[in-house]
Automatic annotation (TrEMBL), chains A, B, C, D:
Name recorded for this polypeptide: TetR family transcriptional regulator
Residue ranges: DNA binding: 33-52
Domain of life from the UniProt record: Bacteria
Pfam families hit by this protein: TetR_C_11, TetR_N
Protein's organism: Nitrospirillum amazonense
Amino acid sequence: MRGPGRPRSDQARDAILDAAFQLLEENGLERFTIEGVAARSGTAKTTIYRWWPGKGALAMEALLAHAELTVPTPSTASAVADLRTMLQGIARSFAGATGRVVASIVLAGQNDPATLKVYHEKVVEPRRQRLRDIIERGKSNGEFRGDLHVETLVEAMYGALYTRLLIRFSPLDEAGWMDRHITQLLEGALPRPLCDRKA
Amino acid sequence: MRGPGRPRSDQARDAILDAAFQLLEENGLERFTIEGVAARSGTAKTTIYRWWPGKGALAMEALLAHAELTVPTPSTASAVADLRTMLQGIARSFAGATGRVVASIVLAGQNDPATLKVYHEKVVEPRRQRLRDIIERGKSNGEFRGDLHVETLVEAMYGALYTRLLIRFSPLDEAGWMDRHITQLLEGALPRPLCDRKA
Amino acid sequence: MRGPGRPRSDQARDAILDAAFQLLEENGLERFTIEGVAARSGTAKTTIYRWWPGKGALAMEALLAHAELTVPTPSTASAVADLRTMLQGIARSFAGATGRVVASIVLAGQNDPATLKVYHEKVVEPRRQRLRDIIERGKSNGEFRGDLHVETLVEAMYGALYTRLLIRFSPLDEAGWMDRHITQLLEGALPRPLCDRKA
Amino acid sequence: MRGPGRPRSDQARDAILDAAFQLLEENGLERFTIEGVAARSGTAKTTIYRWWPGKGALAMEALLAHAELTVPTPSTASAVADLRTMLQGIARSFAGATGRVVASIVLAGQNDPATLKVYHEKVVEPRRQRLRDIIERGKSNGEFRGDLHVETLVEAMYGALYTRLLIRFSPLDEAGWMDRHITQLLEGALPRPLCDRKA
DNA sequence: GAGTAAGCGAGACGGTACGTCAAGTCTTACA
DNA sequence: TGTAAGACTTGACGTACCGTCTCGCTTACTC
């Protein structure tokens, strides 16, 4: 049921993606070269160019293939607890090798909108959706305000993650950071009225 | 009181920084080359390498020299209003050419910690400090809760800016987003108690 | 009476040789590629490699199959006249597309002795033999000296042809040059004695 | 009196031409690669491309720089003797390494008219001129016929050389070949009249 | 004012990687 | 078994920049 011709070698494909991911971890994208991937993977440069248009796309696919992007989606009775679990999972993965690779991808994406678009579709959007779902659940069960703007909350939560990853205000693995961040996002900055629930 | 030898040419220096900034705007950092800067500025590569260690440092200095990074620090009676003014100013500057250059620099910094460090010291930290000052003022005058964690709020506010700049969740010049973002950061996500101040 | 399996396709063979000859005419051997022949002929590279060991051999066979190398062998009473007829025929064919292809083949042969050997056997030797025959006839009937060294004359005659073809001292289609060349080869360079037959 | 900038390195130039000549001798032009020359000479590919447009031109210059193309121009009382001396010298040089390189050059020239043109100007034409001079001298002093067509004789003499080099009718170092060839060119092929000077 | 010490432009140098082309081999589906 | 299709490794192509290195020339300060 397949056309004629030698079928694509999965062995080559895997070797390329493995090598690409390793090199991305080791060097970052700046010193990530197609030539290097070819050498490390034992394949030919042409084979790489046959299947990927450039380093951005290759790095992207290497990330998707290898990184543990599949942070578990928690689903307990408490939306707040689920938020904490999920975001801390992402923070953990960003703090390690995956984070370095993600940073590379985003970097590549600046001059390669196609790659950034794929990253959005495959990584960012699915996660945002899961976050949205949890928040909506929180709105339904009264954990959150009914007039909460979901997108804005999502953005604020992700924003801190990506900013620590890329701008490095402070380390991603700082103890208690994520917890404190979430708490304050939820509680806001304004003074509590006298009859505050915590009063 | 200066040693012997021909003094450094300010004309060359300016021509280099001008050319660098232009090329950064036009091409992003990926296609930003020392060779290109030399050609555009009419100087010799040697001259560039004499004064800057690499493209990261040059780009950094070109940014600092040209971009209107000096957003005015507002100082009215209302800390909340000042926050809005300041952050909207930054958003505006990020939405234009400066934003593209900043993105380039920050991402280049992923593989060039020295450059990123300079960016922190010269750009990020001063702004964060101004933000902290405003927030502290708000705490003092009762606009904000007394137990507010200032750093966390600063990070949340900047996070959204940088994330829109780098990850491009949504455009930086979307009408009203900054306002909405700030409002929600201040109000939090939890339900308002019955005796809410707005009730 | 043939073994099992699909028989060789003459259609493919012809398409390959046609395409090869066309490409040889168009580009010369330098830019003559097996890949190009496969594309132009609509066959697979595999098929070409199954039947020919390399580009030299293929070009050779394409030449033999298509070029009008079969200059008519004249045979009149006058050996001298026959020589002129034959050599002028070859000159004419060398002056056109065939000449370019022959030049390609011969020069390719510099690094591919097998191909050059085939060219000798299939093209050069038969023609030289015909030339020898004519000259021998001339010796028999008194047109030429009895102690003439035939091989040397053959070589002198061919030499001029190939040299114009390959070194391009002068164009192959220069009017009258072949005639003049033959005449002088026959008459020699020495002064005519007083009782010269023309005296 | 030289412009600014680092002067061209003669060391690099010589290393390149040496390496090129060696590789030409070893492999012929077919397997002669710029990459190989760079490796052998210890220079960078870019340096080669800076000074030579392609392999044809490089091979050409390597030949001119190294080959003993300066066959001595004899000048004795006898033009015939001088012809023999000169042509035998060329034959000797063609029979060795120089010959292989010359063959390569001519080959390259088929698809690179500029290279062939240089070869004409620098090698072929000077030699032809020297041959012409000798022949004219022979005409003047009565060794040759007064109505001898000089160009044709030159061509016939060279033709045999290049043809043996390229077509390989017979080896260039066959004993006595050149002598016999010259003799017959001079004496012609026609029967000697009764009062022939040799009679 | 001669000497000396930088800075400057130009541009050649050894390199690395680029993205492309073709070579020749191999593996499939189909005839 | 032959053929078209097409993926594979290999190796060279010619180009773009890298960062370094002479050069000749231009300013200064210093003796």
